[in-house]
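[Q] Does anyone have a clean structure-token version of this?
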Amino acid sequence: MSDTQTILETDSEEWFLLRAVIPDDRDTRAWLLSQGASLIVREPVSLRDELLEEVAAIQTLSVSLDGLFIKNK
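[A] Here you go.
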């Protein structure tokens, strides 16, 4: 992921901590979002908050489209 990455063990058998300097660009954000619940961004807090806002927007859109039907032509 990064030339500066470090993977650290945690007290959980299910989780590791990855520290890395990554680019702040669209591709990186898309990759982070693509990991779903398998990844938690801890820092920077601003990035974490922006990703959570995007997830909330996706959820809101999905709920609002629940009753959407395609019209027959």
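[Q] Thanks! Anything notable?
[A] The chain has a mean pLDDT of 91.
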